[in-house]
Specification:
The protein is mostly helical and 421 residues long. Helices cover 85% and strands 0% of the residues. The protein has a single domain, classed as Up-down Bundle (Growth Hormone, Chain: A), CATH 1.20.1250. The longest helix has 41 residues.
């Protein structure tokens, strides 16, 4: 911790108004970085599967890019979480975003050289940006009280919308830019991704001072040292374990279902004659639904509870899967609605699950625990991305969508078990 922070940390501990001011500043800085991060995230979602399909010449491995960058995000989540725990959110998040930008550059080079090996390796590195974009939502909660946590998560996520929606709709433009400079058009969005991720990292590294997690840890230590008659450690520990279990389960299942259906939607659309513009519109609406409702979702999670919104997530994902399965292949409108519901269900699950994780961790171990749990979320996404291509190649998009929708119903007994316990 810097000398300046050492000199002023006592002021944060003893002055709640200063903590509130710092909390608002952190939300602004993280929100700015998330605008860039959202744009970087959108590239891999929109054209990753199509790029692999073109280079490999088969649909069977079209889910591999999503599997690789989500698998890469699993390792990155662990590293970013530990870096954040040891050196602060600023260092951990900035490093993750910049590494993701390097991965995006690698994807562009792979497309130019037509190297599948370099493509796969670069997608793994690109996953660092995906993991960091997700972990940044925790930074806003470090100085929030329990009634503000879901709302804090939602504010940072809704800011991601601006970049995440713009990204897919710039696919054609970036493709033209790519052609102009002599590289394959499908690599164009990854040029945008590289610039966006690196800018997100620089914003955090330059502006996130003092570090919110460091302040939160010191406030927690001060409060524990000055607290009296604390005899509920065992009860709190049991509640924390249950909260971590339920929160992680909700986030893992929603990620698995969302990635599986989302990843194969561009391939399904291309099979039925839709161009990149249609794909970009559908994925743009999907990503918008993933993030734009966040502000309302956060308020609902804080007001009506984590459990109710987790159940709502399962029901919404089921509706999305059924509609995607039943929608005529030539109907862009119905696919937009289905993918919007898919994004909304994911939004409900991620915010309610994340709030439970934050509720169940202490600042002294929070970032490390959050990073570890995000590994399982990333692995769920990797599994969904890899298996979705196999399912599509051997059955149909209808089977994939219905299966994903039914799987989401597992959320309901999990959260009911939590309430009964």
């Amino acid at each position: 911790m810097s000398d300046n922070l050492q000199d002023t940390v006592h002021d944060y501990i003893t002055a709640p108004d200063k903590v509130k001011k710092m909390y608002r500043k952190v939300l602004v800085v993280v929100s700015i970085s998330q605008i860039f991060g959202g744009a970087g995230l959108a590239a891999g979602i929109t054209v990753g599967a199509l790029l692999a399909q073109k280079m490999l010449g088969t649909d069977a491995f079209a889910g591999v890019p999503a599997a690789l960058f989500t698998l890469g995000s699993a390792g990155a989540a662990l590293i970013v979480g530990r870096l954040s725990q040891r050196y602060g959110r600023r260092t951990g998040l900035a490093t993750g975003f910049i590494v993701g930008g390097v991965g995006s550059v690698g994807v562009v080079l792979a497309a130019v050289l037509n190297s599948v090996i370099l493509l796969f390796a670069s997608l793994l590195v690109y996953g660092a940006g995906t993991a960091t974009n997700l972990q940044a939502r925790y930074a806003g909660t470090d100085l929030a009280n329990q009634q503000q946590r879901a709302t804090a998560i939602s504010i940072t996520m809704v800011m991601t919308t601006f970049g995440a929606v713009a990204g897919p709709n710039l696919v054609d433009i970036m493709g033209e830019v790519a052609l102009f400079i002599g590289i394959p058009p499908l690599a164009g969005p990854f040029i945008l991704s590289a610039a966006a991720y690196i800018l997100a990292g620089l914003v955090l590294f330059i502006m996130l001072r003092p570090d919110p997690l460091d302040i939160a840890k010191r406030i927690s230590t001060y409060n524990q040292e000055n607290a009296q008659h604390i005899d509920n450690d065992l009860i709190d520990n049991n509640l924390n374990k249950r909260g971590l279990t339920v929160g992680a389960t909700v986030m893992v299942l929603t990620q698995l279902v969302m990635v599986a259906i989302m990843t194969m939607t561009p391939v399904h659309m291309e099979r039925h004659g839709h161009g990149l513009t249609d794909v970009g519109i559908v994925i743009g609406f999907h990503i918008g639904a993933m993030y734009l409702p966040s502000l309302v979702t956060g308020i609902l999670v804080d007001k009506i509870g984590r459990t109710a919104m987790s159940i709502a997530s399962g029901i919404t994902l089921l509706m999305a899967g059924l509609l995607a399965a039943l929608a005529p292949s030539n109907s862009v409108i119905l696919l937009i609605i289905a993918l919007s519901l898919l994004g909304l269900g994911w939004n409900f699950g991620l915010i309610s699950g994340t709030a439970q994780i934050v509720d169940s961790t202490m600042p002294s171990t929070r970032a490390k625990t959050q990073g570890t749990l995000d590994v399982f979320i990333a692995l769920a996404g990797a599994s969904g991305g890899a298996l979705s291509g196999v399912v599509l190649a051997n059955t149909s998009f209808t089977t994939l969508s219905i299966g994903g929708g039914l799987l989401s119903l597992v959320l309901i007994p999990v959260v009911i078990w939590s309430r009964r316990s």
